Amino acid sequence: MNRTVMLALTVLPLVGCSLFHRPYRPPRAPGAERGDYAFPQLGVAGIPSTRVTGDVATAIAMAMDDFFLSMPPLPTDADEVTRCLRQRDVWAVQVVPHSEHTLIVEIAPRHEACDPNNVTLDGEALYAIDTQTWRILSVRK
Fold first, then answer.
1. Is 103 in contact with 136 (CB distance < 8 Å)?
2. Backbone phi, then psi, for 79, in 5-degree steps?
3. Domain residue spans in the chain?
4. pTM of the predicted model, to two decimals?
5. Which of 8, 12, 63, 114 has its CA 20 to 30 A from that of 120?
6. Over the stretch 66-125, which tens digit does the pLDDT of each residue have?
7. In Å, how far are 12, 68, 78 from 72, measured between CA atoms?
8. How high is the pLDDT of residue 7?
9. Torsion-angle region of residue 28: left (phi > 0), alpha (psi -120 to 50) or beta?
């Protein structure tokens, strides 16, 4: 009986900690910086814009999250190009419908963003995303 109580007292705090984990929320500018932002009118002719459907946006988010979470920790002595490649904005994404409920998401580095010498960079990945069950079906790196 004593062993059961001790085990419960050891495990309960660990379970409790997982209940207090907050989901990721993007950083926001502080109130003074935010102010009254003047949003442009969307859909005006002559102003370039990109419209992405929800399924495409979700597939991109899933692939990008998995791609970056699967990277090994950045070494302390990493070179400038390696550090640059850890930023999401230096990657290009292309999405192609593959079948009725599958999208292929390609993530590839934009060479000009990180490597001024334009050396071929590794790191391209292909993701097959099921848009019904919202699962990653396959990954090719």
1. no
2. -75, 175
3. 54-141
4. 0.73
5. 63
6. 999 998 899 999 888 888 888 999 999 999 999 999 999 999 988 788 876 766 566 789
7. 31, 9, 12
8. 55
9. beta
